[in-house]
Amino acid sequence: MSDFIEQNESQIHQQSQEILVDTSKKWENGKDTNLRFKVSRIALILRRYRPSIAINIFIVGIVCLLFFLQKHWMNYGNKDIGHLVEKKVIEIAKKNMSLNNALINIPDENDRFERSILNKKDVDTLTSMDRRNEASVDNSKYIIEANRLYEQGYYENAAIYYEEGLNNSMSFLNQDFIMYRLGDCYLLSKRYKDALRVFNTLISDYINSPYQFKSRLKMGECYATIGEFKQALKSLYTILAQEGRCSSEDDKLIVADSYFKIADYYMEEAKRLLKMSTIGTSSTNQ
Fold first, then answer.
1. Which tens digit of pLDDT belongs to each residue from 145-185?
2. Where is mean pLDDT largest: 12-16, 64-68, 125-129?
3. What pTM value is reported for the model?
């Protein structure tokens, strides 16, 4: 009897082990199937959104590179860049001459013929100088009014006076400052094409102007505002290419600002491409 019971117990134990093994195999097979399903699903998602993922990885790489360059430039470049106050000075040359000053050191009255010739030349010279003085005074009148309107935020009205100032300006006046202010007024008045035209003229005609970097930075802002991010980046990269020519603290600050704006414009361009990619993917799925 005891042998029979032991035999039954061993059979029951063996059957239980077989059942456990079968259950374990089924569970493992089910787990493998579930894992394969999840992997295939992830692969399908990656394949579907591959352009978007690639663009995001590219954006992260560009941003990391730009921040690395900025950190390197701040550590090893000029460390004195701080809060700078932009000095906007307009130089107006006023020359006052009179006929009596021109007659100094003229010979005695005996040499009337020579004196008459000198007087004629001096009168012509003084007439020309008076015309220049009159033009410069008219110019200063327009520029002073334009500056007042600009500081008060009336950019459209200020642009009108800056235009008049340019039309009445002389070569010895700082026309590049007037053109920069005019372009900035156009930019702030949302006249982007006019602003680009003025800044481009300033850059081309006044190569040594202290407003070169500022004008290129403003051109980048104009292009970015109208959605032409490639042109905006091109304008900013011309600033970085001339970094070695920085002659003032303002220029160095503009170079630093350009790095950050480049990162911003890359982000905006990437968003535009991502939006186009998403629209294309959704239309394909439909």
1. 999 999 999 999 999 999 988 887 655 467 899 999 999 99
2. 64-68
3. 0.52
CATH topology of domain 86-285: 1.25.40
- DSSP of the chain: -HHHHHHHHHHHHHHHHHHHHHHHHHHHHHHHHHHHHHHHHHHHHHHHTHHHHHHHHHHHHHHHHHHHHHHHHHHHS---------------------HHHHTTT---TT-HHHHHHHHHHHHHHHHHHHHHHHHHHHHHHHHHHHHHHHHHT-HHHHHHHHHHHHHT--TTS-HHHHHHHHHHHHHHTT-HHHHHHHHHHHHHH-TT-TTHHHHHHHHHHHHHHTT-HHHHHHHHHHHHHTGGG--SHHHHHHHHHHHHHHHHHHHHHHHHHHHHHHHHHHHHH-
pLDDT confidence of residue 19: 59
Could you tell me the residue ranges of all domains in the chain?
2-48, 86-285
